[in-house]
Task: inverse folding
């Protein structure tokens, strides 16, 4: 049986190009485990995709994966624009890449038949930094909890068959499917809406709002399933759902020009933090804080050691995260800030 953790992009390319699995050792190949950038190419009518970016139908495309050895394989795919706000604002919206189920009908990996590609939104260099900052957030989240989506950076060449001028090379990153997070954690996804956050695993329901507070993100909701997925552990004694956050482009850490906080929150911009979780005992907050403090140096290193982020953004991002740690390391932060902003559990 094929390794379920091998990403569909890799397997699809091998299958359709005629490669034999006997020729390549896949036993240690883990797409989302490596931080090395991957080069690839996506060919399609991007002029049409821009024009029809609110169309839910897929359009044909070709995806090429370039191996470190210099070899490459190409596979037919289907793509469409995705995202709610980014489709409105971005000249180059995020993309969902879908593979034919028929190609994988005999394999249990058929359920992993699509991946999300986060794109650069617009061609200005500032948008490249914002894309990389969102990628770093996924890395931070991975440090804090195993219940998190992994991401992989790519340098991708977009070839537009519908125009004489192609978008060319840019950065992007793939996000793994929630089913892969579930498989790693012996869980399944549940899609029930209007789940009260207090029905969640209590530690998780505290940690996620603290993480969102760290990155300055208010664009999420558990009851509305907005930028949140829910998992249920398969162990019968672990009955409380676990939330998994994603899509962090509205975070203050990214500070996208289109990101505006909801008026009802009473904050001027997304760089202003506000806690949107429920009230907890001091020791419960402290347990969560300890996890962040334990990973403080690794979190800061993700910014400093990133080879693609500009020095200006590194400095701003480091200061933004250091402000968070100054807060949670303060003796009065829980009383003066969190208990003033947290929601009552009877709401």
Result:
């Amino acid at each position: 049986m094929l390794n379920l953790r091998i990403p569909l992009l890799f397997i699809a390319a091998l299958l359709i190009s005629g490669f034999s699995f006997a020729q390549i050792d896949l036993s240690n190949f883990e797409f989302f485990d490596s931080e090395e950038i991957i080069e690839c190419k996506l060919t399609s009518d991007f002029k049409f995709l821009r024009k029809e970016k609110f169309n839910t139908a897929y359009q044909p495309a070709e995806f090429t994966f370039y191996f470190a050895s210099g070899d490459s394989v190409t596979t037919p795919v289907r793509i469409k624009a995705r995202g709610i706000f980014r489709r409105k604002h971005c000249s180059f919206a995020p993309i969902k890449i879908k593979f034919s189920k028929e190609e994988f009908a005999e394999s249990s990996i058929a359920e992993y038949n699509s991946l999300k590609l986060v794109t650069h939104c617009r061609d200005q260099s500032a948008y490249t930094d914002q894309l990389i900052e969102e990628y770093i957030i996924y890395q931070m989240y991975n440090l804090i909890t195993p219940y998190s989506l992994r991401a992989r950076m790519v340098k991708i060449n977009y070839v537009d068959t519908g125009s004489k001028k192609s978008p060319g090379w840019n950065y992007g990153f793939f996000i793994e499917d929630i089913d892969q997070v579930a498989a790693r954690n012996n869980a399944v996804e549940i899609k029930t809406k209007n789940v009260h956050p207090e029905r969640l695993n209590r530690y998780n329901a505290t940690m996620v709002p603290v993480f969102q507070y760290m990155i300055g993100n208010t664009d999420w909701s558990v009851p509305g399933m907005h930028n949140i997925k829910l998992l249920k552990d398969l162990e019968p004694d672990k009955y409380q759902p676990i939330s998994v956050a994603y899509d962090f482009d509205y975070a203050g850490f990214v500070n996208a020009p289109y990101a505006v906080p909801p008026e009802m929150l009473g904050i001027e911009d997304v760089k202003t933090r506000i806690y949107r979780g429920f009230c907890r005992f001091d020791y419960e907050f402290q347990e969560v804080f300890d996890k962040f403090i334990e990973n403080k140096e690794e979190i800061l290193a993700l910014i400093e050691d990133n080879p693609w982020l500009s020095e200006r953004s590194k400095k701003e991002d480091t200061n933004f995260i250091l402000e968070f740690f100054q807060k949670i390391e303060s003796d009065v932060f829980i009383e003066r800030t969190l208990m003033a902003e947290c929601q009552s559990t009877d709401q």
Summary: Residues 24 and 277 are 48 Å apart (CA to CA).
